[in-house]
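Incident log, structure service

09:12 report received: a user says their structure output differs between two submissions of the same chain.
09:20 pulled the input from the user's history:
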Amino acid sequence: MSEGRVEQLWRKRVRLGPMDPVPRARLVTGEGIEEDANRGRSRRQVTLIEAEVFDRIREALPAAEPAMRRANVMLRGVRLAESRGRTLQVGAVRLLVQGETRPCERMDEQCPGLRDALRPGWAGGVYATVLEGGEISVGDPVRWEDDAAQPRTTSASASTASRS
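09:34 re-ran on a clean worker, output below:
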């Protein structure tokens, strides 16, 4: 699938505080999400997760909720694994993926086992910087700018795949 959509959005009122669901959010170029406690962080301005990851996790951990991951944006239909350096178009907003978001001990405080469930294959999502700001809303289309349906394959995973 080459195009996905925004499934959920969250904003954090205070650092380490709860994640508040919102129907829309304004992203500011070079800063992050307006009215979010983490706004202005240099490379970790927006965090994103995949809905499909939580669909799988809930099979083993029914109590796991996406908001427990403490990300800002949940996408459906777009794979985030191995996407460092790629540009994601979310509605009219452009995000540059900076790297993988690694789950921390706060995940297990909310749901025992969630941290380990989020470790493999970039399941904890990604963090990004805002290249072009604007408003995004639940339901907005999402796609990679290079229009590839799948993330780039690293040489290590390509050689592993060729041995399979």
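09:41 both user submissions now match this output. Likely a transient worker issue. Closing.
09:42 reviewer note: The longest strand covers residues 3-12. The chain has one domain: 3-163.
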